[in-house]
């Protein structure tokens, strides 16, 4: 399933160059729609992921407010699922760092970091 986004109702002041970044973070945070009820939780979850992953977030709280009305078809997840998913990824990364030659190990965060850093640097 492709990830789709609708940004027709976001603020005129919104930086349209950050649309792809918001699409990715809607997917990563499990918050498919940024609205008056979800923007604070979106901001919190995005910061949590950014800090845990050691990547530049690439947007500010004002950007999130400007993106109210942004919608995607990302799968919604609970806070508990988000924390569990992030913990599992972090644990796998630690195990890979400790045992890099173990067969089947994959650097979990590197593709995510590369994607986010690519969008931030645009």
Describe the protein's architecture and organization.
This protein has 122 residues and is mostly helical. The protein has one domain (5-120). 52% of the residues lie in helices and 3% in strands. It has 5 helices and 2 strands. The two termini are 26 Å apart. The mean pLDDT is 84.
Features:
mainly alpha; 52% helix; 122 residues; two-stranded antiparallel sheet
Short recap of the structure:
The protein has 122 residues and is mostly helical. The protein contains 5 helices and 2 strands; from the N terminus they run βαααβαα.
* Order of SSEs: EHHHEHH
Q: Count the helices. How many? A: 5
Q: Tell me the structural class.
A: mainly alpha
Shape: globular
Task: Give the topology.
Layout: E1 5-6, H1 19-29, H2 39-53, H3 61-66, E2 71-72, H4 79-98, H5 109-120
Antiparallel strand pairs: 1-2
